[in-house]
Structure formats: structure tokens, C-alpha cells
Amino acid sequence: MPHIDQLRQPHPFDLLHGTDTGGRYSAADLDSVSLSSLYATGYLGIPPSTLRSALAALPVNHEDFSFVDIGCGKGRALFVAAEFPFRRLFGVEIASKLCEVAWANAARNPAWEKRVSIANQDAKSFVFPDGPLVLFFYYPFYSRVLRRVLANVGRELRQSPRPFYLLHGHLYVNASDSSAEHVDIRTYRKVMQSFPYFREVSDAVYPLSAADAAAEPSGITMNRFLLYSAGVTA
Ligand SMILES: C[S@@+](CC[C@H](N)C(=O)[O-])C[C@H]1O[C@@H](n2cnc3c(N)ncnc32)[C@H](O)[C@@H]1O
């Protein structure tokens, strides 16, 4: 599988856990089970330090919720989320090769194997698990697919209302408003606003730890997280 930055040292998360969650892959270089990959952004694992901060700040009892990573790639976000007492953890990933790596990673830790389920499929056809949910997106795809997935979420919540949060992670640079990252965030926010059942709860920026920053293929030093809740009634 072509890899944009093959010469980089393993990520500290991987050195600690014996996993492979590193690297950066363009969408064009990934295999796929669906044409939705035309709207995919590529693979990049979330920096563990920023995701930990965002998950610690969630206004939930983690043990009441399951965590779903939409576009889980090699599984890094799932394994970081497994540090919290979420009930179960689910990942969905369109690229078969990334999914195989994620399965192999999960198999390295019996606690992960027991709690984590990963499906190789298009997020558009993913069937959401029962019970209260935290859905996580680390900028997996462009708005065309995002809209379809959000419409599915709305249908699911109307059929089976329950506590629900959606957490969007974004690359973030402290740059001009016209930088690519700012435009991505504005676009996501606009799409979210077109679904009346989502309400923005918080908007937070967290810095990468020094170790994560040194290992970060994109060069970012911060992530921005937008948190939404859904107030859908039957
Ligand atoms: C930026 S990576 C994030 C990886 C992981 N969530 C993390 O934070 O460590 C986005 C992932 O979404 C996947 N993806 C893109 N479109 C998808 C779709 N329609 N269904 C499922 N996965 C998709 C990509 O293949 C890629 O692995």
C-alpha cells in the first residue's frame, strides 16, 4: 500500500502498543468496497493526546454510551477511546487494507478484541448499534457522503430515540480564515446546520502533546473538535 511518508519513525502510540496506526495515505491510493471513496479524504490517525482531551470533556457517563468511529482506518481512535469505559466500541472503514490492519491491531490486545468491532463497509450503509451513542468523525469524507450519513443518523434516531452525541475532529492550524482547514470546518458546520435535529454543544481546540506533535505526519500542532447533540423525538 503506497504510503506518503514511509521514512517516518513509528508513532509513540504504536511503540507502546505494538500496533501499526501510523502514516498518511491519500484516498486515491486506498482500495475500497464502495464508490463513496471518491469522496474520501484519505487516512491519517488522530493524535491520541487531543482525542483523549476531547473524550474526557464529553458531558456523558462514558459507561452508558457506545463509541462509533465513522472511517476508523487502522483503528487508532478506537483504541484511544478504549481507554475510557465506553460500553462497546465500533468502527466502520471503507478501505479493506486499512481494515485488515485495524483487525490485526485489535487482536494484539485481548481487552480491545473483547470490546471493539470493526466492519469493512461504506459508512452510508452502516447499521448503528442500539443504545446511547457517541459518533466520531475525524474528517473522513466530503459533504456529499456526510449528508447521507447524517440523514441515516436522523432516520435511526427517529426510529429509536436515545441520547446521542456527534464529535467532529478536524486538523487545525492557527492561520487565516481562508486556510484549507478553516474552510473544511466551515463546510462541516454548514452541513450540520442543515440538519435541524443537531445542536452544537461545544467547539474546543486542543494542542498535541510534544510526542504526538513530533510524530504527526500532517505537521499540525492542534485539533479542533465540534460537539453536537441530537434532539430527535419519535
Ligand atoms: C482521516 S482518517 C481517520 C481515521 C480514524 N478515525 C482516526 O481518527 O484515527 C479517515 C478514514 O475514513 C475512511 N473513510 C472515508 N470514506 C469512508 C466511507 N464512506 N465509509 C467508511 N470509511 C470511510 C478513510 O478510508 C480513512 O481511513
How are the SSEs placed, and which strands pair?
Layout: H1 12-17, E1 24-25, E2 43-44, H2 48-56, E3 66-70, H3 76-81, E4 89-93, H4 96-106, H5 110-115, E5 116-120, E6 133-138, H6 143-159, E7 164-172, H7 180-193, E8 198-207, H8 210-215, E9 222-230
Helix pairs in contact: 6-7
Bound molecules: S-adenosylmethionine.
S-adenosylmethionine is lined by residues 30, 36-37, 40-41, 43-46, 69, 71-73, 76-77, 92-95, 98, 122-124, 138-141, 145.
Task: Describe the protein in words.
The chain is of the alpha/beta class and 234 residues long. The chain has eight helices and nine strands. β6 (133-138), α6 and β7 (164-172) form a beta-alpha-beta unit. α6 (143-159) runs parallel beside α7. The structure holds S-adenosylmethionine. The site of S-adenosylmethionine has 28 residues, from β2, α3 and β4.
Strands of the widest sheet, in order across it, are: 5-4-3-6-7-9-8
- What kind of sheet is the major sheet? 7 strands, mixed
Main CATH class:
Alpha Beta
CATH architecture: 3-Layer(aba) Sandwich
The overall pLDDT average reads 92
- Counted by DSSP, the helix tally is 8
Give the amount of beta strand, in percent: 15-25%
Gyration radius, rounded: 16 Å
Bound molecule kinds, no repeats: S-adenosylmethionine
